[in-house]
Amino acid sequence: MTYNFNNEGLPFLPGSSFRDAPKSAFHLRQTLNYRNGIPLAQRVSVYPGQDHLSSEFHLSHQDIADLTYGPSDRKLHKDFIPAHVALDKKVLRYYAYFMEDILDSPEPKRCVHPVFIYYYLVDDSMCIFEPRVHNSGRPQGQRVKRQRFPKNEHGDYYKWTDLNLSMDLDVYGVKYRITQCDAFTREFMESEGVLVNDPEPMPVDPYSKHGERPRPSQSTPSKPDKLYQFLNMDGKVLRFFALLDDAGETRSVKIHYYLADDTVEIINVHEPNSSRDPFPALLHRLKLPKQIKKENFPSCVMEVSDEDVEYISPEDFQLGKTINLQGRNFQLYECDGFTKEYYQRNHPDMEMKSVEIPKKSGVLRDRKKEIPPYNGFGSLEDSLQNCLYLIPKPPKINSLQRMEKQNEVLRYSARMESQHPEDEGRRFTLSYYLADDMISIFEKSSSLCFFGGKFLKKTRVPKPGSTVENPQYYSPADFAIGATVEVFSHCFVLTDADRYVLKYLESTWDQIPSQTLDSVRQKLGVGMANQQPADQTDLAEPSQ
Predict the structure, then answer these.
(1) Which residues partner with 117 through β-bridges?
(2) How far, in Å, are 409, 430, 466, 476, 510 from residue 501 at the CA level?
(3) Quick one: which H or E segment has residue 86?
(4) CA 493 to mean position of chain CA atoms
(5) What are the structural domains, with CATH classification, of the chain?
(6) In the beta sheet, which residues pair with residue 250?
(7) Are 255 and 240 in contact (CB under 8 A)?
(8) Which of 116, 235, 397, 496 is most exposed by smallest CB count within 10 Å?
(9) For residue 403, what is the DSSP state?
């Protein structure tokens, strides 16, 4: 007789199997299947001689092993993390210093250099960096680049276990004393079981302390410190514009006064077609003597020293007056903004006001180009470029306004106001483009003989009465409902507006007159209960 052992998920052991007499099928279930052309192994849920196991009693291989041998502790095995991942970007930082002997110095004899020692745990490399001190006169920065420091002559290298506080570190013949470390370094060393020593205070640098001592006061006045003047005034130049009378011809020059060393330079202002050679310098940079101090100057000398000569100073330059430089007279009439600020700060008693150039002097002033009157062809900006440049350049535009308001258009309905009776039924759509402040007009088709279409292409429309040289153009503040807009001798009366017009006017209410805003609100019925909103489809421009 054939027996069928239905274990119901129990281990196949003596005493755990039961006979099922009516069982007659002993085939194996299929365990391999194909899905989308890929072989997939199915989990065996029926064993030989068994029926389908119910889901509530289904046990996995691991559950069966736990029932047979007891549960296993899976927490004993931790995930493996390599060292270059666990220690990446983890750096130990130590504060240290080293001593340097100062040769040929009466006092002090040694100098203290504070440094930072960085230890990279990922590859046991180290580097030493000395913080920079402004105007210290010593080479600072990275002293030893990142590498593994040799520990002894046997080829061993320093490890983080060899570092601690209050110890000496010998690196390439220089002894560094470690005094302190940061919080992360201390926490890491204590977590690894290292006993961290007590920190030490950083010693005071006797060389720096010696330089901070106050100098003894002098009873006699000291000479001007030329080095201090050079360091604080380097790159600062006073610039004056002056006129030079050269044999009856007036020439324009620039006078530069260098505050760093009190030198003066005179530059010619070259103009085109002046029939003069373009020599840039009339006088090269040098100190100009003003006069000799007679009280200290002997009657018979071989040479003159700097102490006996009084040189030109900023107090000698006054706008509107004439200054004599190397035997030539220069009339000062203008200076730049930095020069005015310098005199207001250092010489407030001297008033530096610009002086008008006299017409009779015939000076080479900054001439404005004579611009012919506007002839009406093209726009005013384009015509102006033809007068300013030989090769015309495109006029400057407000690119920010054009980008922000590229697709914003204000549309109004208008009718033509004309003396001719046939123009009474003509209706128009006036569009104002906020990106470039231009206006276009389209005529609607009507039952009259007017078929509609483009009446005016995009252009800037000046207000009536404005001059050609300084035109004033229409803006949204001028478009009130019922207002008359004159466009190149054609008058249009605004009768309606789009909903977006009211939205835009309310967003810029501080720039729009209240009369214009109230007229649009009243027309569109804002705040009124028995009026319908305006039909926006009537104001849309016809397709071109």
Answers:
(1) 94, 128
(2) 8, 12, 26, 9, 15
(3) helix 83-86
(4) 49
(5) 1-78 (no CATH), 84-209 (2.30.29.170), 229-361 (2.30.29.170), 371-397 (no CATH), 399-539 (2.30.29.170)
(6) 245
(7) yes
(8) 235
(9) H
Give the H/E segment covering residue 402. helix 399-404
CA contacts within 13 A on the Cβ side of 319: 19
Radius of gyration of the chain (CA): 47
Q: Could you tell me which residues come within 8 angstroms of residue 124 by beta carbon, excluding any fewer than 6 positions away?
A: 148, 157, 158, 159, 160
Residues 6+ away with beta carbon under 8 Å from 255: 239, 240, 241, 242, 264, 265, 266, 267, 317, 325, 330, 332
- Distance, in Å, from the CA atom of 60 to the CA atom of 36, rounded to the nearest integer, reads 27
Read off the tokens for 265.
Answer: 């330079």
Name the H helices within 271-361: 337-346
Per residue in 332-364, is it b (16+ CB within 10 Å) or e — as a string?
Answer: bbbbeeebeebbeeeeeeeebeeeebeeeeebb
Task: For residue 266, give Cα distances in angstroms to 234, 269, 275, 321, 362.
Answer: 19, 10, 20, 17, 20
Measure the CA angle with vertex 341, ends 340 and 342; round to 5°.
90
d(CA 458, CA 442): 11
The CA-atom distances, in angstroms, between 324 and each of 252, 362, 367 are: 15, 21, 27
Residue 353 tokens, joined: 């006001």
Three-class SS of residue 440? strand
Local structure of 421: helix, strand or coil: helix
DSSP state of 444: P
Rounded to whole angstroms, the Cα distance separating 385 from 373 reads 13
Helix, strand and coil content of the chain, in percent to the nearest 5, comes to 20, 30, 50
Which tokens hold the place of 235? 């790159």
3-state class of 262 per DSSP?
coil
Question: Which of 184, 193, 122, 125 minimizes the C-alpha distance to 158?
Answer: 125
Per-residue pLDDT of the chain (544 residues; tens, 9 = 90+): 444 445 556 666 776 666 666 777 777 777 778 888 787 777 655 555 455 444 444 556 666 777 677 666 555 556 788 888 888 999 999 999 999 887 776 666 788 899 999 999 999 999 999 999 887 777 889 999 999 999 988 889 999 999 999 999 999 999 999 999 999 999 999 999 999 999 999 998 877 766 555 655 555 556 667 888 888 888 899 999 999 887 777 888 999 999 999 999 999 888 776 667 667 888 899 998 887 665 555 555 556 666 677 888 899 898 988 888 888 889 999 999 999 999 999 988 888 888 877 554 444 444 445 677 777 777 777 787 777 777 888 877 777 777 778 888 999 999 988 888 888 888 899 999 988 888 999 998 775 666 778 898 988 888 888 887 788 889 898 999 999 999 988 899 999 998 999 999 999 888 888 888 999 998 888 754 333 344 444 454 544 4
In angstroms, rounded to a whole number, what is the distance separating the alpha carbons of residues 427 and 412? 11
